[in-house]
Amino acid sequence: MPAFQVGTRVEATTNTVDVTADPTGWPVRPGVPHFHPIVVDHAGNQSAPTTARVVVRDVVNPTRVLSIEPSQVQPGQAFRLNGSGASDAAAWPVAIGVSGVASDPMRAAGTAARMPQGGKR
Questions:
Q1: What is the model's pLDDT at position 47?
Q2: Cα-based distances in Å from 103 to 19, 29, 107
Q3: Is the dihedral of CA 88, 90, 94, 96 positive or negative?
Q4: Domain limits at 7?
Q5: What pLDDT score was predicted for residue 26?
Q6: Distance CA 52, CA 111 (A)
Q7: Which residues of the chain are under the pLDDT cut of 70?
């Protein structure tokens, strides 16, 4: 099977060419790659080039792995959300994006977690 490199002509000896994804070689990344096939007959005559396009869509969600470091903190202490263990089926790099609103643990726990008047239990 020929190995594709962007901008390099690939010689094939059959009527079909299989294009496979290979993250270590020429990866088929999401987008619309263009191929410009030229057909050559037995006499060496070449066809005019044409453009063939394929739509490559990544439809598989990445795997979310999130740790909090440290896992326990004092009020007002900073902590880190670490998504470095996340991965993608297409073997492309992923980046953590945090969206949404952090919940208020006092409200989430209901009235049982509220401090009585004066701040003592």
A1: 93
A2: 47, 37, 8
A3: negative
A4: 1-57
A5: 58
A6: 64
A7: 1-4, 21-27, 91-92, 98-101, 108-121
Last residue in a domain, options 41, 57, 73? 57
Please give the Cα distance from 17 to 35 (Å, whole number): 11
Backbone dihedral angles phi then psi of residue 38, each to the nearest 5 degrees: -125, 130
Q: Where are the beta strands (DSSP E) in the chain?
A: 34-35, 52-53, 67-69, 80-82
pLDDT for residue 12: 80
> Which residue pairs from 34-43 have beta carbons closer than 8 angstroms and sit at least 24 positions apart in sequence?
none
Task: Kindly state the tokens that stand for 19.
Answer: 């294009």
Select from 84, 26, 85, 86 the least CA-distant residue to 56: 26
Helix (H) or strand (E) holding 27: none
Would you say 25 and 2 are in contact if contact means Cβ atoms under 8 Å apart?
Answer: no
The whole-number pLDDT of residue 94 equals 75
pTM: 0.51
Neighbours of 41 (CB within 10 A): 8
Residues 63 and 119 in one domain: yes
* Contact in structure between 35 and 52 (CB atoms under 8 Å): yes
